Amino acid sequence: MVQVEKLGKIVAHESGTLTILHDISFEIKSGESVAIMGASGSGKSTLLGLLAGLDTPSSGTVWLNGESLFSLDEDGRAALRGRLAGFVFQSFQLLPMLTAWENVMLPLELLGGSDARARAKRMLERVGLAQRLTHYPKQLSGGEQQRVAIARAFVAEPALLLADEPTGNLDSTTGATVIELLFALNRERDATLLLVTHDPALAQRCGRVLKLDAGRLTDNATGICA
């Protein structure tokens, strides 16, 4: 599903240049669950952004489902993301002017689905928000907003789910609920799951753990499947 070859990222810095990622290489098979761990500033979120095609590398490349991501232009990368990937962000990234229902419908509408309304409703019911369909993000708790974000990520049944610190803004109890939901949906949909986390217990629920240290891949360990 994901193949990364000698991926590097260098950015301009006031003292010259800063290398964020150094020749990262790994593969993720379809259906795997993989955690990316590392200290703050180790390059985790940068790596995830590159895997999603939200940023471009300084060197190396990424293949998603056999397609070379950076051989495509920006529109092509966006189209590939739309077909293959769903996203769960730490900051939820819900559109404040849309209801929960409308936020979840959005990816389906962008893909031209004719049954977006019904599918979005079923997905919100699945994450326990049947009574919150017409509420706006500001009317929802943090845990509810993250469940809307998870529903939006899964509604188009993506082959690849990317999650960046999905419980970072939640208390421990709410975070645990969200994680159970994330893994349950991952099993049900047989999606490939790639998540960035600083939580060792969460990482060990994944099949593998990739560890980054100052932009270098230092470990590719086996974890405990969820």
Task: Write up what this structure looks like.
- The chain is of the alpha/beta class.
- It has seven helices and ten strands.
- It has a six-stranded mixed sheet. A four-stranded antiparallel sheet has the order 2-1-4-5, covered by helices on one side.
- Strand 9 and strand 10 form a beta hairpin.
- It starts with a strand and ends with a strand.
The percentage helix is 25-40%
Number of strands: 10
Please tell me what the overall shape is: globular
- Average pLDDT, rounded to a whole number, is 88
Poorly predicted runs: none
Distance between the termini: 19 Å
Characterize the main sheet. Answer: 6 strands, mixed
What's a concise summary of this model?
The chain has 226 residues and is of the alpha/beta class. The protein is built from seven helices and ten strands.
Write the layout of secondary structure elements.
Elements lengths: L1 E12 L2 E13 L4 E6 L5 H8 L7 E6 L2 E2 L5 H11 E5 L10 H11 L5 H11 L15 H13 L5 E5 L7 H18 L2 E5 L3 H4 L4 E6 L2 E7 L4
Helix pairs in contact: 3-4, 3-5, 4-5, 5-6
What are its keywords?
six-stranded mixed β-sheet; single chain; alpha/beta; 226 residues; four-stranded antiparallel β-sheet
